[in-house]
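Recall that a protein's primary structure is simply its ordered list of amino acids. Everything else, from secondary elements to tertiary packing, is in principle encoded there. The following example makes that idea concrete.
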Amino acid sequence: MAAILWLVRFRVALSINLLCSAIVLGFLFNLPLEKIGECAFRGAMDPETLLLTASLLLILIFSGVMKEMGMLARAVTALQRIFHDPRVTIAIIPAIMGILPTMGGAMLSAPLVAEASEELKLSPERRTFLNYWFRHIWEFMLPTYPAVLLTATLVGIPVAKICLMASR
């Protein structure tokens, strides 16, 4: 963890950071370099890894197409007409995305939040925080979230009761 944080501190690209950290972790577990390479190759070629990578790439392409076609601006404009306050619009966008059971929700809602917050001149960090915060406000009360289901199972309380208790 210290190595990862150190590399982040010096703004090393995340991909290089994770690759270096994985190699160091392999050495810490006394794996020979060939075995580390073999594990990395098998992991990269795993069907689930390829599916996840393809899904994330398609989400990025979809988001890019939406931006190029002006769909992001139109969606934000429509929401601003409904809510009138850009702060409410900025909160509503990720909150709606948080309800949807979609992979890569942040990658879809982030460009919308950026578009909606243009006039407020928010920093990228603030936009990221707002996107994250409002996308995850449902986690404690929606019965579709794994943590809610796991809690209900472990504690032996019905899911509906946990959702009601969490929404108080």
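The mean pLDDT is 87. Residues 139-168 form one domain.
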